[in-house]
Design brief:
Distance between the termini: 61 Å
Radius of gyration: 20 Å
Shape: globular
CATH architecture: Alpha-Beta Barrel
Number of strands: 11
CATH class: Alpha Beta
Number of helices: 9
Length: about 270
Amino acid sequence: MIAITRLGMLTMASCLGISLLQQANGQEQTTSVKPLSHAHAHNDYEHARPLYDALDEGFNSVEADVYLVDGELLVAHDFWNVSKKRTLERLYLIPLQERIQANKGRVFPGGPVFTLLVDIKRDGASAYAALEKLLAKYSGFISQTLDGKDTEKAVTVIISGDRPKSFIEASNPRYAGVDGRLSDLDSDEPASLLPLISDNWSLQFRYRGDGEMSETDRTKLREIVAKAHSKGRRVRFWATPESDSIWKELQSAQVDLIGTDNLKKLSAFLNAP
């Protein structure tokens, strides 16, 4: 019995040592990597190591889908896949806080403001109320607006999906902005409230990455970006084909966030000379 106990203790110590080594190696990788301001991890939580895999590749923006279940925001693409172990706080906010503290106030040392896109899948108003309370716990590193004054911090949170815009706008302090659509291009809302314009690529453009992009599509893309930028907003498209040819067009048009499920492929593309 004593031998088993000692063996168990040795096993635990060994596992702990491996865990600490893995954490140290992960920290070394992610703090030395070049941050990629335009790289957005679509459905980031579906990777083996949510957040960390994206950070290891230099991604400066990640997306998490959430459902409100029994007062907690659980991360999953589909409701039947939710797990109480996979909370927004556990997968994203706590690791971001630890990393920011280790890196002297930034997700990447000396790097740009990081984007956390929270896609509320349903029950927008209730989910946002829970999110607002949660973000308040981490207000030390979350960009916010108080009494009309904007304060940029290490992480900017943007709400997508079921967006209760009136509730978000009424918050004071407000810890999140709203993910707009192309219909919001002419909006006069402040950029802190409407910091991003996103839409479905396949519904707006015919180009799928084969051959040359038509001048009609290319002109439309540039006009969208120019108009958004004139209002201080960034631009993102979802449902973009995973191809270098698409990414080259997005990059050439100065689209701000290029989304992907293939972290290594986009990282290699953006890091290419």
